[in-house]
Amino acid sequence: RSEINPNNKHLKVLDLRLSDAGIYTCEYDSHTVSISLHVFKLTISLDGHFLPNEVPELTLMQNSSHSLPDLNITLFNNNNNIVRPKLLQNKTRQKYILKLKQLEATDSGTWICHVHSDSPLINQNISFDVKVLGFQNPDLERKYATVDSTVILSWRLNFQKIKWKEGFTGQLNWEQQESATSHELLDFNITARGEQHETKKSIHFWFEIPERKPESTIEVKLPKVHFNHSGQYQCQLAYNRRYTQSKIELVVMKVSANPVGPLPSGAEMTLICQVSSPLPSNAHLRWERVNGTQTDIKKSKQHEVKVEVNVSAAGLWNCHLIEDNDKKISLNYPVEEAPVWISYVVIGASIGGSLLVFGLACLCITSGISWQRRRQRAKRTAQARQYLLENKTCQCQQ
Q: Which ranges carry the Ig-like domain (predicted)?
């Protein structure tokens, strides 16, 4: 594992090991030069390949022909910021074990381990790679949609960005409510070459897998959102029997009216704005009338899923879902005034209905009285017949 350059007599040691530490002496004629070689070996757990929230351990070992110095170790992450690990072992000065914090996908990159000693003087930088396979999405992302709209849910993977050379698999699941039955929508696998393959699993859930989508992205498209499409969509990665996941919560909003249809003169209807799940504390629903006044505004209370407003005049109403003073989605409901003839029809139908009910009531009363009289007559006839039978006599002629 060694070779000497004949021009300058340099000694090159290949594949350096801890056991190579010691004193190397060069003798030339009457001259002797000695050099002490101090060797460090830095290893990282799981060969530097991690999933988010995993905790790496660094092991630094040293060997020398002299007494081993007490080392001062400083770590710098991929952004050149100092990281303060927990020292787990340093009994013999030969082996140092350092425990880092939980990793995030953004921690991927080249880290530096700086080793320092005053005696002997050592200032050594040892670089090592940290790769964290995961999502570029937040841990929990919330997305809002209105009924009948089109929505695309995307999970951006970082495997090409960090040059991940290993294969892994994953799947996309949906559950309408937390702890409810989970439904697998699709599964996928990424080869060591970075080739991505997806397979649709669910035939009951109406969604599409877009053919054209950004690189390193898992994506589903809901072409026409239903109210019951809401819930949590969970994308999960699996690597060496270890798992990580990212969720998107889909909240769906709809508006309706009670009663449905044009508003007759003098009548009132209730407009209902509703979402599929409770909103966070920084979000609320708000009805407001277009070109209306402050009195034409109705807000939902904290964590409410529904807000109602009573309307007695025609006009255009908008329901907004607002998060941190930002309008996320909106739906409008036009309240139309019914034509005059419809009002007359409604009034006539009401009067006709009342008369019909009154007539039916009278008919029922008359029929009941007649039935009661017939029953009493039949009872008296039966009693008279019984009396005659009991008092009947027979006279014989002598």
A: 266-330
